[in-house]
Design brief:
Blueprint: E1 3-5, H1 15-18, E2 24-26, E3 31-33, H2 49-53, E4 59-61, H3 69-80
Antiparallel strand pairs: 1-4, 2-3
Bound molecules: iron/sulfur cluster (2 copies).
Amino acid sequence: MALKITEECINCDVCEPVCPNEAISMGAEIYIIDPNLCTECVGHHDQPQCLELCPVESIEKDSAHPETVDELTAKYERLTGPFGGPPLTQRR
Ligand code: SF4
Ligand code: SF4
């Protein structure tokens, strides 16, 4: 299940740089998470990094995008390549 940012977001910029999948970006008014890129940090970390660090708890599970751990793992493998390539941030 991808995560989403709620309207409680105060645009503090903490979450965007910690996302290993570059799934977080600034939207029209607040930060947003691309569900196609969010793996709940599966493949990178034990816990969702953005969720852990948000100071106002404005990140939550997005029930509109339910996914199993297997599906999240498959997404991670799709994003990083068949042999587990380097993080997206190192592939530019
Ligand atoms: S849970 Fe992980 S992958 Fe998803 S948006 Fe947050 S930091 Fe990025
Ligand atoms: S850490 Fe929380 S408050 Fe800060 S930009 Fe991200 S979602 Fe918004």
